[in-house]
Specification:
heterodimer, A: alpha+beta, two-stranded antiparallel sheet, 8 strands, 19% strand, B: 711 residues, alpha/beta, 29 strands, binds iron/sulfur cluster
Chain lengths: 166, 711
């Protein structure tokens, strides 16, 4: 099964933080995507990568972290003991401690929305299409296609077309 | 339990995004993206953070639920609707009998077309044209400026045309931050290969996407635009045929821009001459171009001239009357366009029909069955000064918050204190209510229904998604009750007897030529709405204006020659060495009455920060996070500093949502009567946190507590 996740096209992010607000609304007031301002101007949204070899899943002593049928890394709250291991091993520091329930929380790719055939809320709302939901190879292929198209166009017109946002 | 998905229009900015509110038994519980409605302005149902948080403000704990009457300033007792309506009607009637021009009415760009139609009808039937709304403070120059050049004051094209353009010139607004979903179309054009030119004193999120970035000083727009026109004319890059066949006044333009050589413009604006030449060439040779602007351009004493020049720039390049081209003013609030169309303005009847035109007046005299005044009324800022002199004695304020939104707020508060009678109708307590005699609880936009007109002239119907809290009532209902109580109780267009908002829209159809075919039935059926002008019930609406001719009397575009360069009226001097400008945050809206009641937004955009250039900051010994005091000739304002290269040296930029208008200048543009909120001289000093707290106490609170006492 092809593993899908949320990809980010940094060149399109306008730092509007709609993705954060949308995530927070879908997850009881906690947002699992964060937008950072980087060196004053560049912005980037950071979220769970649902890694191929996810260290968080590997390290979890109670198997609270598992994969669903779409390949998303989910957390079973009743099994979580709040030992923080997943947060420590995640290279992006994604799993967060819910201070009230003392268990971890993380991006579930909007499992409840996917069950209804909808996209994760952050992807659905992103006004600039900076967030894409899909399978890695598929997204890479699309980007190559777009790049090739533009290069052909460029060759035809001889104009200097920018390749941002491909 | 009944769960419903109700299609509404976002209550925030002028993009007019559609979304669904999920409600259970009339209680709003969430939203859903409108992915399944084709051809709406937010393609695929995309929303910005404000749109994502719309449910939160509806549930605010301090929503107004009962009519209130003041015992003393800021202290209220609860009263019944009938008492409130009766008292308002009696007071208004008494002033009208004496001299109707003692009354001033405020329409609102944040509520539907129907209440705006009704409030101006009420003002006019009472005998005064003193009715205005906050478009005065944002896009009045757009209306007067575009009208002068093209004959009408609205956006000439649609979002689709931005997407199809080959060049987009963005001046005086941070498009990505103010209208994120609208900016989507800019990025789509750019992906296609379109060039983006951005002119802004701040290096904004929008400038990040610019192919050419022009960082000019606040208020130096006339020089910049004239400079572009100069190059285009000198290099013969303009559309000769279009100029010959469809424009007048070209020769005057040629001589007016003579002295605006790139070198001269560089001196005045601070933009390198080569960049001006490059921008002019890029813009004029693209084949299809759109110009967009907002308050950075309009809020000046020469706002009207700025807009006239942009119209001229667009016209000489032949970028009018065709797809993928045009002039696109970006409206800040959801219904600025509609409130103007409905004539919440002192000089026109609905559909921009001049009150001074005897024929139009005669039509409305017959339509409403009363005698009407042919004297142009007062604008918001003029009303404040008239009230100061005791000429205006009563305000009826619907959904407005002048204490925060008007320039020179200290003067505004002083005026409101002097009024004899003020009614404020809103959904939550605002600092303006502090001065009210009667407070009326209104239903929020999502709690009632009606039509609304977005930036691109698209009229859409928004349905009722939730029950209003307590005794809060729709705006149209409140005004119609007041109207009836005053004695305008005939049925038909001569009175205020309506069953629902659709009834009001039918009356609008009958007297507003542009809206004739925009009936409630059509809007309810077609969720994507209709672009006015739509002159008959079978007309499909109009995407691009001026295909054949302009709306000026001779059908030609009247090019503007502005030979004199004028900067801001108040320039930096020894005492006030910095140039202050204001801007907004993506997650905050207007005077923050709604956004500050949303946890998700409040936590991300929690406080204002004053942007200051690193070199200026170093001279003053200021670091990011330090408290500073900004002072102008009108007031003082404490704020934390953010040291950043995003602003030009010598410029201080503050977001205005938190009441920074105590600083700004209310000098007026002579035509549009807009105050120069965007540029004035200021001084900056570092202060301690205690000093900041002390200063803060003197400012109007953004979220006031309304004190309700007994008996
Ligand atoms: S919604 Fe999109 S553009 Fe906005 S911050 Fe998130 S990723 Fe960036
Ligand atoms: S939480 Fe971290 S380690 Fe686990 S899948 Fe997400 S990104 Fe990978
Ligand atoms: S862009 Fe404007 S209309 Fe659209 S969701 Fe945001 S605030 Fe609402």
């Amino acid at each position: 099964m092809a593993r899908k996740t949320v990809f980010i096209d940094f060149s399109k992010c306008i730092e509007c933080r709609a993705c954060e607000v949308a995530c927070e609304r879908e997850h009881n007031g906690m947002s699992f995507i964060s937008v950072f301002e980087w060196q004053e101007m560049a912005a980037m949204a950071l979220n769970c990568r649902h890694c191929e070899k996810a260290p968080c899943v590997e390290v979890c002593p109670t198997n609270a972290l598992y994969r669903d049928k779409d390949g998303a890394v989910l957390l079973a709250p009743q099994k979580c003991i709040g030992c923080l291991m997943c947060g420590i091993v995640c290279p992006f520091g994604i799993p967060e401690l819910d201070l009230i329930n003392k268990i971890m929380g993380k991006c579930d790719l909007c499992a409840h929305r996917r069950a209804e055939g909808k996209l994760p809320a952050c992807v659905e709302t992103c006004p600039t299409d900076a967030l894409l939901y899909g399978e890695f190879n598929e997204i890479i292929r699309k980007r190559r296609e777009k790049f090739t198209e533009k290069t052909i166009e460029l060759a035809k017109t001889g104009e200097n077309i920018q390749l941002t946002g491909v | 339990m009944s769960e419903r998905l109700v299609p509404v229009v976002c209550p925030y900015c002028g993009v007019g995004c559609r979304l669904y509110i999920r409600s259970v038994d009339g209680y709003p519980v969430g939203i859903e993206y409108a992915k399944d409605i084709p051809n709406i302005s937010n393609e695929l149902g995309k929303l910005c953070p404000k749109g994502n948080a719309v449910v939160e403000y509806l549930l605010a704990k301090d929503r107004l639920k009962k009519p209130l009457k003041a015992k003393e300033q800021g202290k209220f007792v609860e009263i019944s609707w009938s008492e409130a309506i009766k008292e308002i009607a009696e007071r208004l009637k008494a002033y009208a009998k004496d001299d109707p021009n003692q009354l001033m009415f405020f329409g609102s760009a944040r509520t539907f077309n129907e209440p705006n139609y009704l409030i101006q009808k009420l003002a006019r039937m009472l005998g005064t044209n003193n009715v205005d709304h906050c478009a005065r403070l944002c896009h009045a120059p757009t209306v007067t400026g575009l009208k002068a050049v093209f004959g009408a004051g609205a956006m000439t094209n649609t979002y689709k045309d931005i997407e199809e353009a080959n060049v987009i010139f963005i001046i005086g607004h941070n498009y990505a931050e103010t209208h994120p979903v609208g900016f989507r179309y800019v990025l789509k054009a750019k992906e296609r290969g379109a060039k983006v030119i951005v002119a802004d004193p701040r290096f904004t999120r929008t400038a990040w996407f610019a192919d050419i970035y022009l960082q000019h000083y606040p208020g130096s727009d006339i020089a910049l635009i004239n400079g572009l026109i100069h190059v285009i004319i000198k290099e013969k890059l303009y559309d000769e045929r279009f100029v010959r066949e469809r424009c007048v006044g070209f020769d005057e333009v040629v001589s007016a821009v003579e002295k605006f050589t790139p070198e001269f413009v560089e001196k005045v604006t601070g933009v390198p001459a080569e960049l001006i030449v490059e921008a002019a060439r890029t813009f004029a040779t693209a084949g299809k171009g759109v110009i967009t602007w907002a308050m950075g351009l309009t809020q000046h004493t020469h706002g009207t001239d700025n807009v006239r020049l942009l119209g001229t720039l667009s016209a000489i390049c032949g970028y009018q009357g065709k797809e993928g081209a045009g002039c696109a003013p970006m409206r800040g609030q959801n219904n600025v366009q509609g409130a103007c169309d409905m004539a919440a303005l002192p000089n026109v009847f609905p559909g921009y029909q001049a009150v001074t035109d005897p024929e139009k007046r005669k039509f409305f005299e017959e339509f409403w069955g009363v005698e009407l005044s042919g004297e142009v009324g007062l604008t918001t800022v003029e009303a404040a000064y008239a009230a100061d002199k005791g000429k205006v004695k009563a305000y009826y304020v619907m959904g407005e918050n002048p204490v925060i939104s008007e320039a020179n707020a200290n003067h505004v508060m002083h005026t409101l204190e002097r009024l004899e009678f003020m009614v404020v109708q809103d959904i939550v307590p605002t600092p303006t209510m502090e001065f009210a005699d009667i407070v009326l609880p209104a239903a929020a936009m999502l709690e009632n229904e009606g039509s609304i007109t977005n930036t691109e002239r698209r009229v859409q119907w928004s349905f009722q998604a939730a029950k209003p809290p307590g005794e809060a009532r729709p705006d149209w209902w409140i005004i119609s009750e007041v109207g009836k109580a005053i004695g305008f109780d005939k049925t038909g267009s001569g009175g205020f007897v309506y069953n629902d908002a659709a009834d009001v829209l039918r009356e609008i159809n009958a007297c507003t030529p542009q809206y004739r075919g925009i009936t409630p039935e059509r809007l309810k059926e077609n969720l994507a709405g209709l672009h006015w002008p739509c002159p008959s019930p079978d007309h499909p609406g109009t995407r691009v204006l001026y295909k054949e001719k302009f709306l000026t009397p001779d059908g030609k575009a009247h090019l503007a020659a502005v030979p004199e360069y004028r900067g801001p009226v108040e320039m930096p001097d020894e005492e006030y060495p910095f140039l202050l400008t204001t801007h907004r945050y993506v997650g905050m809206y207007h005077t923050a009455t709604m956004t500050m009641r949303s946890e998700a937004l409040k936590k991300r955009w929690s406080e204002p920060l004053a942007e200051i250039h690193p070199e200026d900051a170093e001279k003053l010994g200021i670091k990011s996070g330090d408290w500073i005091k900004i002072e102008t000739r009108r007031g003082a304002y404490p704020i934390k500093a953010k040291v950043t290269r995003a602003v030009k040296k010598g410029v201080i930029a503050v977001p205005w949502h938190w009441g920074a208008n105590v600083l700004t200048n209310d000098a007026l543009d002579p035509v549009a009567k807009i105050p120069e909120t965007k540029a004035c001289a200021c001084k900056v000093v570092k202060i301690t946190e205690e000093d900041a707290k002390r200063l803060m106490e003197k400012l109007p609170p953004v979220i006031p507590k309304i004190e309700v006492v007994r008996g």
